Structure formats: C-alpha cells, structure tokens
Amino acid sequence: MTVRLRMSIHGKRNNRIFHLVAIDLRKRRDAKPIETLGIYRPALKHGETEKRVEWSVERIKYWLRMGAQPSKTFERLLSLGGILTPAGDKASCPPFH
Predict the structure, then answer these.
(1) To 5 degrees, how large is the angle CA 27–CA 25–CA 10?
(2) Residue 1: CA atoms inside 13 Å, Cβ hemisphere, count?
(3) How far is 74 from 2, CA to CA, in rounded Å?
(4) What pLDDT score does 44 carry?
(5) How many CB atoms lie within 10 A of CB 56?
(6) What is the pLDDT, as a whole number, of residue 21?
(7) Alpha-carbon dihedral sign for residues 7, 10, 13, 16
(8) Residue 16 belongs to what H/E stretch?
C-alpha cells in the first residue's frame, strides 16, 4: 500500500480548514485517512497577523521514514516549517571536489 501525505479540505467555502493527513494513494481527497497529522487554517481571525499550522512533527517524520510521499503542497509546507529541506536547496546537496 502506497501512502501519500496530503491535505483534505473541510469547512465552508470562504472559511476552509485543511487537515494534513496520511492516506492511501488510491483514495479520494476527502476519504477517511489512515492518520490525521495536523490542521492548517489559512483564514486569519481578527487580531491575527500570521497563518498557523498545528501538526505533529514526530508523526510526519515517522511517515516520511516509512516511505510516504508528500504532495507538492504538503512538501512546501514542510519546507516552510523547517521539517523538510527543499529539493533544490544547495545545503542538502553534497559539495563537489
């Protein structure tokens, strides 16, 4: 079974909530996941200045070690959060001698 780390959409049209989930690759976007890894709320409430992501870093790293493939959007969130280094980052590539 191939596992994918991706986002599922919940909430009303102008007030979306994205659940960060580990799910079977063949299942539809909002199907029941294997595990919910976090929540991303992009809409700002009154008085907030930053968007926040609530996630379980240990569980995300576990699924990545087990071979789960993150989607492009999920991978971008991980790189912004410092969990995963970007693929094109020179710091992650070995130097040439």
Answers:
(1) 55
(2) 8
(3) 16
(4) 85
(5) 14
(6) 95
(7) negative
(8) strand 15-24
Question: What span, in angstroms and rounded, lies between the C-alpha atoms of 58 and 66?
Answer: 12
Residue 95: predicted pLDDT: 45
| Gap between the Cα atoms of 16 and 73, Å rounded | 15
In this prediction, residue 34 carries a pLDDT of: 95
CA-CA distance, 79 to 25, in Å (whole number)? 22
Q: Which residues of the chain have pLDDT under 50?
A: 88-97
Contact indicator for 3, 70 with CB cutoff of 8 Å: no
Q: Is 2 helix (H, G, I), strand (E, B) or coil?
A: coil
Which secondary-structure segment (H or E) carries 3? Answer: strand 3-12
Chain centroid, CA 81 distance in Å: 10
Q: Are 34 and 27 in contact (CB under 8 A)?
A: no
29 — phi, psi (to 5°)?
-60, -45
